[in-house]
Amino acid sequence: MSGRTYSKTYTKFFNLATFFGVFPFNLQEDGTVIDYHRSGPTKLWATLNTTFLILYLFYQLGMITVSSVLGRVDKLGWFSQSCWLIMALFPLPSLILYSKKRQKLCECLTQWVQLEKDLIGGKDTGANMKEKKVSTIFNMNDPALIKEGMEYESFRRGLFCFHAQEKTFKKLMWMYCFIAIITSCVVGLHNLSNPDFPAYFTSLLDPKRDNSIIIYASSAMQFYMVGLCVIHVGSFEILMMGCVRSIRHCIESLSNLNSVSMERRAVCGRKKPKNDTLDVATIAENIEKRDATQYGSQQEMQVEEATDNYRRVEFVVENINECFSGSFLAHQTMYLAMMCILIFVFLRSSENNSIITSIFFSTYSIFFTLRICCLLPFLGKLGEDSEIFIYSWLEEIPKLLRGGKPYETAEVKLHACRILGINCGDYYDIQGSTILTFFSIVTTYLIILLQL
C-alpha cells in the first residue's frame, strides 16, 4: 500500500475543509508533507472566511453590550444571548493556533503522516506477498522468506488500519456536516420567527416598518456564519480525533499480539486480530524448530525495533500536545459553559418560549452533547493503548529472550516508555473516564445556575 493510496483518506478531508474555507492547510501529492496555502484562490478564500469569523465575533460582542447597556433583556435573556457569543468564540482558539503556530503545526502534522506511513502504511514487498502461499512465506529455514512473511503481516495490519481510518474520517465528516446543516437551519428559522431576539440585528429595527427583506438577509447571514463556526470547529476536532486514532493504530502495530494484554482488552475498537489467512499453529511450530541463538537474536531485534518506533510515537505525541493542548483547553472550557447555559435556558424558559425557540435550545444541547461524547472518548483511549503496548512486551520478553543481558536491556527500555495522553493545557491528560468527570462538572454548575 503506497503512501499515495493511504493519503486518499486525508486528501478528502483536506479538500472538504479547503472547500469550506475553514482550514488553511493542504496535503501535498506525495501524501507525506502537509503545508499551508501560501497564495492563490484557496488562500484568499480561507483569509476571507477568517475575516468573517472575526467580524462575527465582534458583532456578537457589540450586540450583547448594547443589550446590557440599554437594559433590553432580563437575566434569562442575557444568558440566552450569551449562547451566540460563545458560538462566535469557538473558532478563536484554532484561528490563533493557525496564525501563531502555522509552521510548527505543519511540521507536526507532517511528522504524524510520515510516522503512519512508516509503521502501518505497508510496503511494496508486503503488498506483493498476498499472491504467495502461506506455506511458502513462512518457511522458517529461509531468512529471506522470514522477512517477507513479516512484511506480509505488516501489509495485512496496514490494510486494516487504512480501512479503519477511512471509516473513521467518513463517519466524522458526515456527522459534523449534518450537525452544521441542522444547526444553521434552526438558527435561521429562529431568526425568522423571533426577529426581536437581542442576538440578531433585526432586534434594533423599528417593528412598525416593513423589515421583511432585512429579516431574510439577517437569517441568511446567521445561517452562513453559524454553519461556518460549526464547520471550522468541526475540522479542528476531526483532525485531532483522526490523528489520535492513527497514532493508536501505530501503537497497536508495535504491540505484541501474542500477549495476554492483547487477548483481554480491545485495541482500536476490536479484539486481538483473528488471522484467517495465516496458519498460526504452523508458524509457532516452525519458530520452535529454529536455532535458539538465532531465535534470541531475532526476538531481541524485534523488541528493540518496537521500542525505537515507540520513541518516534512519543515524539509525535509531544509535538501534538505542544500545538493543540492550549486550543483544546479553550475548546473544552467553552463546551462546559455552552452546555451549562443551554440546559439552564431550556429548563427555565421551556414553558414560555415558542416551539421554534424550544427546538433551538434542545437541538443545540443535543448536538453539543453528541460532539463532546465523541471527542473525549476518542482522545482518552490513547493512554490505554500505550499501556497495552508496554505490558504486552513485558509479559512476553521472558519467553522471547529467555533471560540474560538482552532481557535486562529490553526490560529497561520498556520501563522507560511513557504512558501517552493528550494534554488539556498543563492541567491534566484526557482519559477514558474524562467524559464522566465533564458531565459531573456540568451537573454541578447547572445546579448552581438553577439557584439564580
Question: What's the structural blueprint in terms of helices and strands?
Answer:
Elements: H1 3-6, H2 8-20, E1 25-27, E2 34-36, H3 41-70, H4 75-89, H5 91-100, H6 102-120, H7 124-128, H8 134-137, H9 143-193, H10 212-254, H11 260-264, H12 280-289, H13 292-349, H14 355-401, H15 405-416, E3 423-424, E4 428-429, H16 434-450
Antiparallel strand pairs: 1-2, 3-4
Q: Overview of this structure, please?
A:
A two-stranded antiparallel ribbon has the order 1-2. The longest helix is centred in the C-terminal third of the chain and has 58 residues, at 292-349. The protein has 452 residues and is mainly α. It has helices at 3-6, 8-20, 41-70, 75-89, 91-100, 102-120, 124-128, 134-137, 143-193, 212-254, 260-264, 280-289, 292-349, 355-401, 405-416, 434-450, and strands at residues 25-27, 34-36, 423-424, 428-429. The radius of gyration is 26 Å and the shape is elongated. The chain has one domain. The protein is built from 16 helices and four strands. Helix 4 (75-89) runs antiparallel to helix 13 (292-349) and helix 9 (143-193) runs antiparallel to helix 14.
